[in-house]
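Re: the pair you flagged

First of the two:
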Amino acid sequence: MHHEQDLFKMGGLRSKLPITFATMLVATLAIIGFPGTSGFASKDEILYLAYLKHPALWLIGVVAACCTAFYMLRLFTLTFLGKARDHHAYDHAHESPVSMTLPLVVLAVGTVLAVWLGWPKAFGGDFHIEAWLASAITFGQLHAPHGEHGSHQLAWALASVSTILGLSSAAFGYFSYKDGLTVAAARAAKFPFLHDLLLNKYYVDEGVERFLLGPIRWFGNLLWKLFDVIIIDGVGVNLPGALARVFGDFTALFQTGRVRNYTLSMALGAAVLLYVFLK
């Protein structure tokens, strides 16, 4: 893309990057939990085990999965489908070298085949890889944890619900961006508050700056100016130096450089001492 990394300036790269397109398609399907991919097995087994702990955990996981499905189709659609939105960058786009595409292909193939090497027990599989990893997972434990008890029917029912919701969110992402940014711009104009809220990431950064980093920075400046500048540098370092300088200037008033004055001062001092001791 000629060093272009802005997603909104991409589009139509399917023909320009065929290997990247195909491997990204597999990755997208896996991440959204499309049936038959390793992402489906791992995601829905996690959701099933979360449900056995508490249904609220399952619901939170499903909402997160739906958000993931939406933004993955948004990413995939804006990048590879539709029309190019920056023709200069599109004209310079080319496929990556083999050193980058070969690992993508290996990972994509593994994404599809891995699920058949270890189908989860929750869905009636043997999950042989679990027994292979068990010694490492339970190393040093006196009692190995027992698996959660449930039913295959419940696992499949929950997986069906989460899959339907996830694919619906993915479809929503696709239809929202298949024609570029037109639909998204119309929604932003229709719901400006919601658009600004999402665009600014719920103002989390601003909240952290105002209520956490700001007070910490203010307290740090207080410590710096009060203790470091005033007490340590001012009282501890500069004040003794200033007193020494003033005392030296005061003493210098009595240093005339005339020997007779020094002799007179010594004589007067000796007379005073004699008076004190002989009194």
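Second of the two:
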Amino acid sequence: MRRRTHIALLVLASLAAACGDSGGPDSGPLPNDATDAVGLTIRDEVEASLDALTVPTQLAPYGVDVAQPCAAPADPEDTDGDGVPTSAEYIITAPPCRFEDIRNSTLDMVGRLQIADPEPGAGGAGFDYNGTLVNLRSSFRGKDADHSYSVTRNGTRVLTGSTAGLELATDLQLLRTFPGLSDAAVDVQWTVSFDPDTPLQINHALPPGALAVAGTMDWLRGTESFALTVSAPEPLHFDATCDAAQRFDSGEVHAAGTFGDLTGYVRVRWGDCGDEPTIDFVEGGE
């Protein structure tokens, strides 16, 4: 499996639920809770991809009001007023980027986020940005060690789009911890497409809409080495009126490949607003 050189990775954290990260009974035939581990990583990255569809929502945990982001750009210049800095770096530290009661845990965010407007200046206002993540770590501290974990992200995101919809191209290297188990090194290369229910507006929150995911996820943890194809046979629906940490009310994502001696896919299915997705393993082809 292809591995990339990670950029001075720290030891770590992510934007997602502490519940379900306790290393409990496996929800499928894969050893070492691999079904849950892959599924939780998909859940986290899908949610992080939704956050990445605007600049402000990358500076707070999923589902938190970002009227006052916890970090300011080193250079706030925004010549076209579209909310995307001309070229700026956010230095994120905790505190102030510490958030209490996020899925029954405390979330600390640290690292660097670089954002640049590919077409700054008058007449270039739009949704597009080029983003670089450098040791951007989200650390969850739950009620005990079994409910604590972290994810560090390095790599790039490129957002393009118009009022009709958005497309986010992601090329990230992750290091994710799991309570009582080895850390996972994960390469995520996928594209997220967002189809809004109503036209998008610059400097406004996202309306409800459908989010589709397509690409790959290469997984390495201990003796596990999986090259996975990620798809969304049922696009996820984002409920903009939901005030819970988990704001998808339907949808399904598959990560398909060969898992040791088994061929099949990890399936992550979302239900109602606020409900954590279910994760299971389906043997055989899709």
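Confidence is low (pLDDT under 50) at residues 1-26.

-B.
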